[in-house]
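Data deposition worksheet. Section B asks for the primary sequence of the deposited chain exactly as it was used as input, without tags or linkers unless they were present during the calculation. Section C holds the resulting structure in token form. Section D is free text for depositor observations; keep each observation to a single sentence. Incomplete worksheets are returned to the depositor.
Section A, Depositor: J.P.
Section B:
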Amino acid sequence: MTAERVVVSIEEEGAPRAGGSRVATGWLVEPTRVVVPDPPPGLLDGSLAVAIVLAGEDESPIERIPMAGVNAVRLAGAEFAVLDLATASRHAPNAVMPEPVVLEAAIAAHGGDVRAAFEATGGPVPPGDRACAKHNIVNCARCP
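Section C:
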């Protein structure tokens, strides 16, 4: 895995790739999992076919990974998506998945705004920090 910052774009399959196929953005919280705080219509019920596009800030090739599954998560009256990737990304996670109770409190404190709550509690990982893939913790003290 590389340590550069990564941009995660959720793009509609079959749409033209040049401008306009992005339907949402998200954060890579594990090599095979992406959080989408503002899922577009059709993502949660499976009627929208998407691929996850990951691009690093370096000159490396862009990854386009199919979605293997989607989970709807409901906390504090808000809903967001957790996408499972068909294969692991070569990128290091750019966010950390907060504990549900912490994220629920943050969503309530941010008036139901999942993006703001997630940014306040788990992502994105600050530049120079690394998210431990084993424990999903920024600058994990348990790992060398």
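Section D:
The mean pLDDT is 80.
The domain at 6-121 is CATH 2.40.10.10 (Thrombin, subunit H).
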